[in-house]
Design goal:
With 335 residues, the protein is an alpha+beta fold. It has 12 helices and 6 strands.
Amino acid sequence: MACNDRRLLLFSTPNRGVARARNLGIANARGHYVAFLDADDLWHPLKVERQVEALNIHRSDPTWAGVYSFHRTIDENDRITGRGQLLVDCRGYILARDLVLKFIGNGSNLLVRRDAALAVGGFDPSYADNGIGGCEDLDFELRLAARYRIELVGSFLVGYRRYKGNMSSDGSRMARAMIETVARHLKANPAISRRVKRWATGSAHRYAFQVLLRQRHMLPALVAYIKLVLNDPIVAIITAGEVVAAVAERFRSERSFGSRLTFLSADPAADSDMPIDTIAFLKQGRLTDEDRMLERDETLCSTELRETIDLTTRGENTLAASAAEVQHRHVQEVR
């Protein structure tokens, strides 16, 4: 396709992690916006169009940097297996809500202004370098959320694939990556209240418990659950109930037959008005208040916006140098 369409450029790079690959793309992009699509995920045909429309509404306001949509989980055959978190009114300054509820959900969701991606430094390769790659997307969106406002398109426009063998199925690594990512951002944002820090830490250990239990790493899962109890006992009780319900549902599903809808055949607006889950219901109000407080304290002030210009220039130079290094190494390896 790239050979027949001059608008498309194809870059090849050795496998040095998702962060460096995406930074290469950002450095070479020439459009106003950039979006990312993992090879095993799906976009609805209207995904980019609707997200660009939503972000263009704020084009004259530099505090709005990105836009996300709802997502559905899919299997190897594109069949819908579930959905991500629904927070219908979650837009604007969302750092606290995203730290605790993580509703953007995957790296194929965001569409962002290229200059904003550069201003926050692109994707961080240090996670993969330290053997805990897997949450670079969350790290990137949290750095955006700490500095900018994020918009929402309330339709299911992303199919997030989960299956044995893909990156998100490596439970032990993903658990460590999640815990480390959240810890870094809590340290980087000291204005966050103590309560929300506990909730965010508990949420990271809840995720670790779930992925470790799914892969039957029982002792690490137990350790993660204990840390969840210590940080957020109410969510720990809810999580235990979900495990029991999931076991019962598995037995029922093993006795049921019939095809599911595929992602592209489903109406993207269907189910977008479903009620939010229990944890989001309990926490969204307080987290929204926290975000308002953080936004007021940090004010997204004009000083910071002026610094964005300098950061964008520096980020662009850094990513350009990184891209040149990757291409140079690739040439050397070919030789």
